[in-house]
Amino acid sequence: MAKKGVASVRGFSDVLPAQTPLWQWAEARIQRVLEAYDYREIRLPVLERTELFCRSIGEVTDIVEKEMYTFEDRNGDSLTMRPEGTAGCVRAGIEHGLLHNSEPRLWYRGAMFRHERPQRGRLRQFHQIGAEAFGVAAPELDAEMIVMTARMLRELGLDEGVRLQLNSLGTPQCRAAYRAELIDYLQRHENELDEESRRRLNSNPLRIFDSKDPGVQAVMAEAPRLLDALDEESAAHFTTLRNLLEQAGVEYTVNPALVRGLDYYTRTVFEWVTDRLGAQGTVCAGGRFDGLVEQLGGRATPAIGFALGLERLVELLAEGRAEEVARCGGAAHAYLVVAGESAAAFALAEWLRDALPRLRLQMHPGSAGFKGQLKRADRSGARVALILGDAEEAAGEVTVKDLRDDQPQRRMDREALVQYLCGLIDDDGRAT
User: Fold this and answer.
1) What DSSP line would sit under 288-342, residue for residue?
2) Inter-axis angle of helices 310-318 and 20-36, to 10 degrees?
């Protein structure tokens, strides 16, 4: 009986070569927008000290209580595979002095890890692009960041069917007063709450707004609103933000139940959501975290950030766009077929790669007949076959055979060939 191979870990998925071009296409556009707003890339470690997340995210959050991949290393230190990027970005900013007398704008991308039930749009290893801006407390920065995320979605062609939800969580002081009011209300309705909500009642009652239980949702619909408990400065901040978004033409809905799942948020929180991904409808989310830098040992520094889930984004991009996704599949532009004993094929291939750095060119390795090479060229998905035989080599030319359209073969010199191949490569490096 044949042995079975070793399978991947549940919730840890491969991104295959047919899929990665779409990821690269999306990442390149997002990076271009971030750079247009002067965000600089920072590359953060996957492992951090567990204390970092307990202090930042909050010890009574689901992430810390149930979802983190935490272990002791050989030295007995407790380490955690990062469940989100903001805490690590703040830690790096403090440790390397990036936040001292400056207003850095940082962005990062990479894998995050949470031990939760794998389902559509939610994996145990998932990927995010995130950005954080430090040193500015004004609502204009909040508006600019939200407008920037709107621009990203437009660049990706995803602005239709994705909606912006907005809320304010106020300051820790007004939130503490509201928390007491909310607990008092929930205690009067405790018998209507599910087990999970009753567990959260005294530890993290705002998270009960996230409950999917219909009965709990009905209770929370009548709960006191945090927006009504905002202090004067937080209310003015939120009003200014809303005015700026309206002036910029960004549509939004105020969602009083939007609280986000992490303890460090203050004032502005936002989410871009869709109905096209089932229950996991949040595509991009973020908010202000004015107290986190000081909480982690730095000087008091206002900040705001967001994270965008790449798996969910790619799923939206692929939905209903099969032809465009196929074009993102990374097939070669050209396949070099060697007819006869031409020894110039390797030199020609390298010359073409020098002349056209974005050209994707395959050359048949080893020996095979002419017809066999053409079959392999066709199976490769390449747009054209470049045929180099003794006659072509002697004339300093190459024969071009179109593999996708019924066009006559043409012989071209090298200059004409470069111009022709250049026309096959679109702005994203794909075959036209």
Assistant:
1) E-TTHHHHTTS----EEEEEEEHHHHHHHHHTT-HHHHHHTT---SEEEEE-SS-
2) 110
pLDDT of residue 130: 97
The per-residue DSSP string of 119-177 comes to BTTB-SEEEEEEEEEES--SHHHHHHHHHHHHHHHHHTT--TTEEEEEEE---HHHHHH
- Cα distance between residue 250 and residue 272, in whole Å: 12
What Rg, from alpha-carbon coordinates, does the chain have?
A: 27
The alpha carbon of residue 11 and the mean position of all alpha carbons in its chain are separated, in whole angstroms, by 17
Helix (H) or strand (E) holding 72: strand 69-72
CA atoms lying within 13 Å on the CB side of residue 187: 8
Q: How confident is the model at residue 390 (pLDDT cuts 50, 70, 90)?
A: confident
How far is Cα 403 from Cα 360, in angstroms, rounded to an integer? 15
d(CA 85, CA 80): 12
* Predicted pLDDT of residue 245: 97
User: Cβ(115)–Cβ(215) under 8 Å?
Assistant: no
- The pLDDT of residue 151 is 97
Range 52-73 average pLDDT: 78
DSSP state of 263: T
> What residues form DSSP beta bridges with 163?
273
* Contact of 152 with 109, CB cutoff 8 Å: no
Please answer whether residues 169 and 226 qualify as being in contact, where contact means their C-beta atoms are separated by less than 8 angstroms: yes
248-293 tens-digit pLDDT: 999 999 998 888 766 788 999 999 999 887 766 899 999 999 999 9
pTM of the model: 0.85
